[in-house]
Amino acid sequence: xxxxxxxxxxxxxxxxxxxGELASFDGVEVxxxxxxxxxxxxxxxESVDAEVSLVTRMHEISGVATVRLAYHNFEDLEQ
Amino acid sequence: MDVSxxxxxxxxxxxxxxxxxxxxxxxxxxxGAAEAAEGGLTWGKAPCRFCGTGxxxxxxxxxxxxxxxxxxxxxxVNKGLNCVKGYFLSKVLNGQDRLTTPLIRxxxxxxxxxxxxxMTLIASKFKESIEKYGPDxxxxxxxxQWTIFEGYAASKLFKGGIGTNNIEVNARLCMASAxxxxxxxxxxxEPMGCYDDLDLGDTxxxxxxxxxxxxxxxxxxxxxxxxxxxxxxxxxFATRRTRTSLMADRYVKFKPQTDLALLNAIxxxxxxxxxxxxxxxxxxxxxxxxKENIGYGLEDKFKFADEPKGISFEEYRxxxxxxxxxxxxxxxxVPAETIVEMAHLYADKNRKVTTLWTMGxxxxxxxxxxxxxxxxxxxxxxxxxxxxxNPMSLTGQPSACGTTRExxxxxxxxxxxxxxxxxxxxxxTAKIWGIDPKKIPAKPTYNATEMFRALDxxxxxxxxxxxxxxxxxxxxxxxxRKGARKGEGRFVIVSDMYPTRSTEQADVVLPSxxxxxxxxxxxxxxxxxxxxxxxxxxxxxxxxxxxxxMELARRLGYGSLFPYQHPQREIWEEYRKFGDGQGKDxxxxxxxxxxxxxxxxxxxxxxTRYRYVEGYDPYVKAGEGVKFYKNKPDHYRAVIWxxxxxxxxEQPDQHYPFWLxxxxxxxxxxxxxxTGRVPELKRAYxxxxxxxxxxxxxxxxxKQGDLVRVSSRRGSVVLAADLNGRGKAEHGNVFVAFFDxxxxxxxxxxDAYCPISGEPDYKKCAVKVEKAR
Lengths: 79, 773
Fold this sequence. Notes:
heterodimer; A: alpha+beta; Alpha-Beta Plaits; four-stranded antiparallel sheet; 2 helices; elongated; B: alpha/beta; Phosphorylase Kinase, domain 1; Rossmann fold; seven-stranded mixed sheet; six-stranded mixed β-barrel; 29 strands; 18% strand; globular; chaperone (chain A); cytoplasm (chain A)
């Protein structure tokens, strides 16, 4: 299963509501919120397909400006 | 994967994300865990394969496979974070339908062949055509995705060996107007500023640039700047409401083509209200005008030469009188008071202003002019060359700058801004290449559009396309797709990593190695040159394009042009002789091996952040302040051009009442040949849709998701209507992305181009929209 670490940047004042929404996403763990409101999360999914659709859904949350990828491990995928 | 390894990797993933945003105190990674998570991976650095931003990535390899990707924390461009396209790097190399063997068309069918068979056939076709019809009957069409070495070898073989200027690139379709804009205003290609401007300015004007989707990492830098500085303002001038508009402080919508008038109106107000910087203008600027009513390049063999004429400041001011805010409001749809407000914002002495644009300006039948007009505003206000205050054209391909522009892989260009028309430039090039200067023809042949027109007419017989997909990406595509298959001696070769709409047009298909399957260098939009090494083997018999070009050279008898033991390193050392002492200085190869890219000119091991300015640029001496030192004929000054508004060649009318604009979306890159391989991507944004304004849709009885037929005078395509998607069409406009190989929207586009740059306009043609039955 691929695993990735991402940073979510929000419009000012939206971090709390975004964290709230992310809590309902299967496969997303919020690891922390920085003082400037940026959110660090770890994604785990069955496939890269599922990971990217998680990111696409995260992008659609109201107040989310960008979702950026810091680390992506897909070592046990059949390639 | 066992639980403890999963936990290590998850901790590693979180740690990388925390580190990238400066949250080291929150880092959950315990000592020793990092090492465990690495689990036998070796890491190498490379720039991302996709756009022109030039983000650094670390590529994790185990057992000969790429198994992990990190944003490179040491990369100044992206500081440890990649956009969503970073996920696709995991699969780009490993698509199921990867080409692994050469293919030769036999009885209409592409059939596996050996490299020797394929190269023998290609060489015989080249020889036969050159013998019968001369060197201008063969051509190569490359790309801003060529490595610097691949572009250099192609240029050397065609211009210096075969003796034809028939070399063009897809960058003609995306960057050519930026080149002619820079050349006509500053006499040197590429920006004075760099990405640091995104962090250091406070006022950002975006013109027709959907940065949130097309340059997400750079847009993130703007947003981060704004998070720490509440005075930062982002103004989005556009013809379509996008994610960028949503995040901007202001969205200013305007009618297509009226950017020309708006920039003139802004200049008009700046001068009218005395906001211009008289001292800067007196010292650093000259004024010129060129020809007007310059045509649109719609006829085959269209030719144009500008006739620049010096004018006074007074004459320039006079020329702007046609652009009062009131007149331009009527033309553009932007209220007069908004134009005045924006002019004052541009000129505010307490604001550091950066202007950013991309295809909205460059793919424009007056692309050179609109680039000139953007520079005018910066030159009038003296806001240029200093940190946070610069105009900059962003790029779409990873080495549109490093390869096509700097190496000069266009019909008229040679390395380091030199041109074939200039005898001294040919002489210098011939000396470095070790050939007779007479070998390089003095006349340019065809720009990209004209090259495929020549193939259609039969003036070009043999054409080789590398790392690009012209038979999906050209405008007025029907003509060029049919032209390529007319027979009568035409022979098309396509090198690619996957089957595309271009390989299906080919007589021979060659399987190419890509990205970290080979050693490479790319140059990004801020003059930064990156190097990487080969990390994994290409599948099957795929080989890199540098090898392919040199192999053709050998078989045509030009092997002596490529006498290299270690081609990449030796080509670099040969190539950098062109820029030495020219303000285009590049460092020795090892400097790039060690660094995360360097911005040229690199003099005495030091890169240059800001050009033309004392204290940053080694070519500007103490006491000189600002000096546009590449423009010697104008006494080292930049040029403010009087350029008028002229209408688009085809405008909506009663039969074709909508403007069609084409472009990209976040999840797909260009023609989708790499991103389309990834199945989840296709699900996220499975096929192109037609964005249409809800009011327009209502009048036509179209509902969300209805199938609609979009037609121009050249072609037609059926798409699902999207009334309320991520991008929102303004009244009278529709937008369609061009990634979808099953919906060839470029068949509808007009092949009109900017007469100065030769770049086509994919953003404006007239279409009708009907409910499909």
